[in-house]
């Protein structure tokens, strides 16, 4: 059991009977009352993000998650197939378990699969990933004075705001935690 004083970002805890990951937390001291802790959590089974407030000093069960390297293989309906690189086991996750991560999946992408009690529950993407732009409006000469951006659709269907000099067919690096353009590759 861990107390609210031991909370950290990306720590896995059991909250209201569900495995959750702490996205962010804040300790708040209110005038006359006791201190409270505001937490932003992500349910590891469903991918849902929610916010909760609890009293300082409240205790939670800490969860220990196992991670192993997998390679993304292919989608089939609303299921996604991965291969464990050490055991060559086929692991299937649903669209609901993947959440936003499905927008970054490209063939043969290496990532980590997260398991709770030997049950695969989600994936952890690399910090940055290279995607190819399949469509974007052409940029015009002289449009860069304001440092503007335009939407670009990538090979996975993800729409990213990119600088005006990016064109269809370019490869770009995207930050998977924010979904933002990083650089042209």
From TrEMBL:
Keyword Signal: no
Record keywords: Cytoplasm, Elongation factor, Protein biosynthesis
Translation elongation factor P/YeiP central domain segment(s): 67-121
Locations listed in the record: Cytoplasm
Single Gene Ontology BP annotation: peptide biosynthetic process
Known pathway: Protein biosynthesis; polypeptide chain elongation
Domain Elongation factor P C-terminal: 129-184
Domain of life: Bacteria
Gene Ontology CC terms: cytosol
Matching SMART domains: EFP, Elong-fact-P_C
Leader peptide range in chain numbering: none
NCBIfam families documented for this protein: efp (TIGR00038), PRK00529.1 (NF001810)
Protein's job: Involved in peptide bond synthesis. Stimulates efficient translation and peptide-bond synthesis on native or reconstituted 70S ribosomes in vitro. Probably functions indirectly by altering the affinity of the ribosome for aminoacyl-tRNA, thus increasing their reactivity as acceptors for peptidyl transferase.
Protein name: Elongation factor P
Gene assigned in the entry: efp
């Amino acid at each position: 059991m861990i107390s609210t004083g031991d909370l950290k970002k990306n720590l896995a805890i059991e909250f209201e009977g569900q495995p959750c990951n702490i996205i962010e937390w804040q300790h708040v001291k209110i005038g006359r009352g006791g201190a409270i802790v505001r937490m932003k959590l992500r349910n590891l089974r469903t991918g849902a993000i929610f916010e909760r407030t609890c009293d300082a000093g409240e205790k939670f069960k800490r969860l220990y998650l196992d991670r192993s390297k997998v390679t993304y293989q292919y989608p089939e309906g609303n299921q996604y197939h991965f291969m464990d690189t050490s055991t060559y086991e086929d692991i299937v996750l649903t669209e609901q378990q993947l959440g936003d991560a499905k927008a970054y999946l490209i063939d043969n992408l290496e990532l980590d699969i997260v398991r709770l009690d030997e049950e695969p529950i989600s994936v952890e993407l690399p910090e940055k990933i290279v995607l190819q732009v399949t469509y974007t409006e052409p940029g015009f000469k002289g449009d860069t004075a304001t440092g503007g951006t335009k939407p670009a659709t990538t090979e996975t269907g993800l729409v990213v705001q990119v600088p005006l000099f990016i064109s269809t067919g370019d490869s770009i690096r995207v930050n998977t935690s924010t979904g933002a353009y990083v650089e042209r590759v």
